[in-house]
Amino acid sequence: MSGRLDGRRVLVTGAASGIGRACVLRLLDEGATVCGADVAEAGLKETAELAAAAGAGDRLSTEQLDVSDEAAVAATTAAVLTRSGGLDALVNAAGILRTGHTHEFGLDSWERIIAVNLTGTFLTTRAALPALLDARGVVVNFSSTSAAFGHPYMAAYAASKGGIDAFTHALAVEYAKQGLRAVALQPGSIDSGITRATAGDLPADVDWALFGRLMPLLGRGMADPGVVASVVAMLVSDDGRFITGTGIRIDGGTHA
Ligand SMILES: NC(=O)c1ccc[n+]([C@@H]2O[C@H](COP(=O)([O-])OP(=O)(O)OC[C@H]3O[C@@H](n4cnc5c(N)ncnc54)[C@H](O)[C@@H]3O)[C@@H](O)[C@H]2O)c1
């Protein structure tokens, strides 16, 4: 079999669920060798089982990792690099969402969201950068439509994602001449752990006139994570070679 991503070495965080898992399976399907990292061990095992069932288990390794833990990120990245001999792409899909009225939002929740989503993206990128620069590779970060459009009850999450957009743009310019690309994806309304949990996490007095604005025009409700994984595969491949320093919105037209 000859795939678009044969020989590419990719590290995917958030690999135990939703979009990250879909990315792992799609990248494997197109020929890549993948390390899937996530804090959730049981979910990682399920991802490995799905990869094995698809006949690609021999090209997937997994690492239990909390991306907000600086020392753990350094150690895991070093282990991945030793195993793979280099890295062509980093896909930063790990993320968390907690909702609530901003005037009631706890500092602990604010800090955890920033630590995982924004600082986690920084830590994994920093650790992988030397190898990515060697390979003239790509960083695919996960922002959200909430970064550029108002999503009620998600101020902390939106702030973390706005930071990821800004981080990605700076990265793209800083390293463009060394051949590195950096892209921020802005998904919306994708069926995943985050969106399923949010349904039960909204404030009891949620204003549906506000929250109901976040509905896609295409399809019937939430989309399969595969609609995002296909874009990630394109960005990791040569087909994405002229794309950097930009966001790509994947929301079924919610914010068209
Ligand atoms: N689903 C959507 O509609 C949507 C919209 C916008 C952005 N996103 C972003 O897409 C990315 C993937 O999320 P998803 O929708 O697949 O949700 P998900 O909950 O299914 O997956 C997120 C994964 O991140 C992992 N994770 C959480 N904290 C971690 C940590 N500290 N270290 C390592 N892994 C950790 C979780 O265990 C989980 O496996 C996230 O960054 C999310 O913010 C999703």
From TrEMBL:
Keyword Oxidoreductase: yes
Source species: Pseudonocardia humida
PANTHER family: 2,3-DIHYDRO-2,3-DIHYDROXYBENZOATE DEHYDROGENASE, DEHYDROGENASES, SHORT CHAIN
Keywords from the UniProt entry: Oxidoreductase
Domain of life: Bacteria
Domain (Ketoreductase) ranges: 8-193
Protein name, per record: SDR family oxidoreductase
Entry similarity comment: Belongs to the short-chain dehydrogenases/reductases (SDR) family.
Gene3D superfamilies listed in its UniProt record: NAD(P)-binding Rossmann-like Domain
Any Pfam family: adh_short_C2
SUPFAM superfamilies, per the entry: NAD(P)-binding Rossmann-fold domains
